Amino acid sequence: MKRENSNRLFEKAKKLIPGGVNSPVRACKSVDSSPVFINRADGCRIFDEDGNEYIDYIGSWGPMIFGHRHPAVIDAIHSALKNGTSFGAPTGLEIKLAEMIIEAVPSIEMVRMVNSGTEAAMSAIRLARGFTGRDMIIKFDGCYHGHSDALLVEAGSGVATLGIPGSPGVPESFVSGTLSLPFNNIKSVEEAMEKHGSEIACIIVEPVAGNMGLVLPGDGFLQALRSLTEKYNALLIFDEVMTGFRVAYGGAQSVYGIVPDLTCLGKIIGGGLPVGAYGGKREIMEHIAPQGPVYQAGTLSGNPLAMAAGIATLTELKKPGFYDSLNSMSEKLGKGLFDAAKKAGINVSVAISGSMLGMFFTKEKVIDFESAKKSDLKMFASYYRNMLQNGIYLAPSQFEALFVSSAHSAEDIDQTVYAAGKVMSELNGKQ
Ligand code: KE4
């Protein structure tokens, strides 16, 4: 597979942009590779600067639930564009998207738009601290909520991939109030709440973890978080930046029947344009400026192009049967990968949540970050590189999830499974 143009562009990019990328995981370091530079995408296919074509399972890390260039989203952006790109003033579009989000997610009675998932989580944490008057927060190892200082401890996603627990530049004082516990470990949460309950402002969790690979919540885990936060008058924040409108129209909270106090959103609600949001109970959200004292602001918050793309996206997602047919493709892929690995004599653990998938090279059940890290990371790196060679564009990290879109056909899934079988047989041959 030709890589001359991508390699040349990467060398140039590395002189101008740290690591040659604008987000660390894109540098493909953890899989001993280098990035292909993308020129365009269409449907479930993505094309690089050397003319190579791939079936795309990153989908811009989640937003592209329809695949690329869905006509309704493109048209909505074009129409909004005719009126201008940004006003820094309220628009009717913001009201429309707020109404759709509030209607989709009953726990959200008020919502504030921001420009990224990081901003959404950072603002929700500040709101929880301002509302409760408490400073401590609990998160979970391997869960990633963006790169705001207080949350960058034992994070998942990029930080986990780079193996940097926390990060230089984050003062000890900024994280001394952050407790990071093992995901799915109810006992550790009970102990932490018994010890610090009166100081805990909130527990923030990815209800389905997508930043340590895909790890599902164990039976009763989310309910336990809800009960413990109620018992100690702390807030429960669901970070649904990835799962929101992905695993169901109402998000993971609708699948698991849990009502959080605050929810963070992003990715899909912007249709591929920069967006984030946080929302929840009215009595909490009314503490946000200018209605209340907790400050949060943003030049491009509620940007009309992003709002138009989000409205078009949620309008399409609401259509009857969308998730049933999307999730059936995802099931087909998950089963196909598991069967291909079995046939190749390779142990894998596959997890599926709606159209999010994860596959670890291990025969053990992966329930948290520790068990995720025990999987065969070298095997994953070889698998990633060989799948790319075979035209399959996977996340360049074991600690990410795969995304199936409504543009992936049964034939695309078959082609993917065929490639996986070929690659895994070769990998086993080399073992
Ligand atoms: P952004 O600031 O990247 O928009 O969102 C941060 C964030 C917050 N919460 C969750 C659950 C997330 O998954 C993310 C970001 N996800 C990563 C992919 N795992 C973004 C990819 C990247 O960092 O380049």
UniProtKB/TrEMBL annotation:
Its cofactor is pyridoxal 5'-phosphate. The modification N6-(pyridoxal phosphate)lysine is found at residue 267. Keywords: Cytoplasm, Isomerase, Porphyrin biosynthesis, Pyridoxal phosphate. It catalyses: (S)-4-amino-5-oxopentanoate = 5-aminolevulinate. Its EC number is 5.4.3.8. Pfam families: Aminotran_3. It is found in: Cytoplasm. GO terms for cellular component: cytoplasm. InterPro entries: 4pyrrol_synth_GluAld_NH2Trfase, Aminotrans_3, Aminotrans_3_PPA_site, PyrdxlP-dep_Trfase, PyrdxlP-dep_Trfase_major, PyrdxlP-dep_Trfase_small. Belongs to the class-III pyridoxal-phosphate-dependent aminotransferase family. HemL subfamily. Homodimer. This is Glutamate-1-semialdehyde 2,1-aminomutase. It comes from uncultured Desulfobacterium sp.
